[in-house]
Amino acid sequence: MFLKAEPADFASVMELYRQLHPRDAVVPDERAQAVYDEILRTPGMHLFVIEQDGVVIASTYLNLIPNLTRGAAPYGVVENVIVDAAHRGTGVGKAVMAGTLQAAWDAGCYKVMLLTGSKRESTHAYYQACGFVAGEKTGFVAHPPA
Question: Are strands 140-142 and 45-52 parallel, antiparallel or unpaired?
Fold first, then answer.
């Protein structure tokens, strides 16, 4: 089930992030908790999870950016896309991205962007299968369906 992250999801989200960036320095729990709480309470910042049988198995982070062009329509930036290793290849990744993009379209975004540091073709194919296209700029951009 696609949901907005709740305060109780903190430990599960942090475990997913350790899978996403295993070489990152460990952030002290109190600092990470403070940042997590800030994300949850800040308008325009949306941390999403997919839960299966009460367990968080995927997450994305959508930032809605106010904008003075494009009819003052905001745009979205997606970060920290992660599916638990045991659930990859099962459609969970496409589901978490579909929910994230729908949240952006519902907020009136005229586009959603993301950047990936991955050079793997499978990662690029995943983002393209989710509706992102390689653009003129470095990164990927998705536009709402017509």
Answer: unpaired
Sheet holding 2-4, edge to edge: 2-4, 45-52, 55-65, 75-83, 112-114, 140-142, 133-134
Rounded to an integer, the average pLDDT of 79-88 is 96
Torsion over CA: 24, 26, 32, 35 (sign): negative
Q: Kindly tell me if the per-residue pLDDT of 141 is higher than 70.
A: no
The residue written with tokens 């109780």 in the block is 8
Q: Reduced to 3 states, what is the DSSP secondary structure of residue 117? A: coil
Nearest to 13 by CA among 30, 44, 43, 36: 36
| Token output for 13 | 């989200």
- DSSP string for residues in 69-110: SGGG--EEEEEEEEE-GGGTTTTHHHHHHHHHHHHHHHTT-S
| Crossing angle (nearest 10°) for helices 121-129 and 92-106 | 50
